[in-house]
């Protein structure tokens, strides 16, 4: 028993298959390309927005860091000695030496180095003589002063009467006033 389809049914199925292929080719295929283009456009837009967001986050992070430094600027400026306030520094150092019974000779250098537009580095040379204990107390008090003094070299010599002569070489940092 063989099952034969009449020729009329075969023609119907062939026409339906052709119609189905035409619908797929004419309706789905153009929309597929359009959907594919929309997908590519949306992907590119998402990448562009992500890079802009990342750049914006970088700018925002920079802005926050800048604001943090700007808020601390008076504190940083207090570490520097204002130009024209040399006498105040010398007076405080002399008071410190007197407090700890030390003899002191101060010399602020004239070879200033500009570190930036408003900050200069001034060399100093202090010669201090006295007892070891008094000198240590002097250094401790010097460290607690609100100035930024960088000591580059310490030269210590002992005399016969148990007194030390100490030479401190280093730098002070000065803040030039806005012009």
Describe the structure.
By secondary structure, the protein is an alpha+beta fold. It has 2 domains: about 1-75; about 80-175, Ribosomal protein S6/Translation elongation factor EF1B (Alpha-Beta Plaits, 2-Layer Sandwich), CATH 3.30.70.60. About 55% of the residues lie in helices and about 25% in strands. The chain has helices at about 5-75, 85-100, 130-145; strands spanning about 80, 105-110, 115, 120-130, 150-160, 165-175. Strand 5 and strand 6 (about 165-175) form a beta hairpin. The longest helix is centred in the N-terminal third of the chain and has 71 residues, at about 5-75. It starts with 6 loop residues before the first helix and ends with a strand.
Topology record:
Blueprint: H1 7-77, E1 81-82, H2 86-99, E2 103-108, E3 113-114, E4 119-130, H3 132-144, E5 149-158, E6 164-175
Parallel strand pairs: 1-6
Antiparallel strand pairs: 2-4, 3-4, 4-6, 5-6
């Amino acid at each position: 028993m063989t099952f034969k389809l009449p020729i009329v049914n075969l023609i119907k199925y062939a026409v339906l298959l052709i119609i189905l292929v035409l619908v797929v080719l004419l309706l789905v295929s153009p929309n597929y390309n359009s959907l594919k283009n929309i997908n590519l456009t949306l992907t590119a837009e998402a990448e562009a927005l992500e890079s802009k967001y990342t750049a914006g986050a970088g700018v925002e992070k920079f802005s926050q860091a800048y604001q943090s430094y700007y808020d601390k600027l008076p504190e940083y400026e207090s570490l520097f000695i204002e130009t024209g306030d040399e006498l105040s520094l010398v007076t405080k150092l002399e008071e410190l030496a007197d407090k700890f019974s030390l003899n002191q000779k101060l010399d602020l250098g004239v070879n200033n180095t500009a570190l930036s537009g408003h900050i200069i580095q001034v060399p100093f040379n202090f010669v201090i003589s006295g007892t070891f204990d008094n000198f240590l107390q002097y250094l401790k008090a010097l460290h607690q002063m609100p100035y930024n003094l960088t000591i580059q070299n310490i030269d210590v010599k002992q005399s016969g009467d148990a007194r030390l002569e100490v030479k401190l070489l280093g730098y002070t940092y000065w803040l030039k006033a806005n012009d």
